[in-house]
Structure prediction request, 190 residues.
Amino acid sequence: MINIVLFGKPGAGKGTQAEFLKSQYQLVHISTGDVFRYNIKNTTDLGKLAQSYMDQGDLVPDSVTINMLEAEVEKNHDAKGFIFDGFPRTTAQAEALDAFLSKKEMQVTATIALEATDDELVERLLKRGETSGRSDDQDEAKIRNRFDEYNQKTAPLRSFYTNQSKFHSVNGIGTIDEITARLTSIIDRF
Ligand code: ADP
Prediction:
């Protein structure tokens, strides 16, 4: 079983690369952002709760996100493995993921970071905002707030996974195919 955590700032290309990796390795792709947006669209209780945080570019509280992620994994108990995209984003989430997976005799195989500069990312997100309709992509202040959230809460996961010898990083600038090749050269080692 291969379980990959895709790591990187908003706009780094996690969702785009996950689409390729999931078919290449027959993995189930879980994007916490997509699950939240689905719930917002369908005005579920979870969606109503998440919306106020997401609209501001803040993280949704850990307890809510962790329960949701575990439910998504449980829905796919036949899976050959998972790509976690946008989760974990805090140390508490990473600890919860380790505990949850180990109960199921599973573990994170590797965490792979897609690296790009803030200026490149802002440009990509504003461009995405023109077509995605995502309000968090249309306003530079909200984008910068997401980077601040990342720097404060998510960046510490680099050392969390480095301490487990699971952290890898790839250059996230280039063509989609080039970046996919960088990722597969890491995943193929497992
Ligand atoms: P991006 O990585 O491009 O910012 P996502 O679609 O992954 O976009 O996430 C959008 C928003 O969903 C985040 O800004 C946050 O509010 C919420 N979210 C997604 N994943 C998590 C998470 N693991 N913990 C808390 N909030 C999350």
Observations:
- The pocket of adenosine-5'-diphosphate is lined by residues 10-11, 32-33, 36, 53-54, 57-60, 65, 86-87, 89, 93, 136, 146 (CB under 6 Å).
- The mean pLDDT is 97.
- The beta strands are 2-7, 28-31, 81-85, 110-115, 167-171.
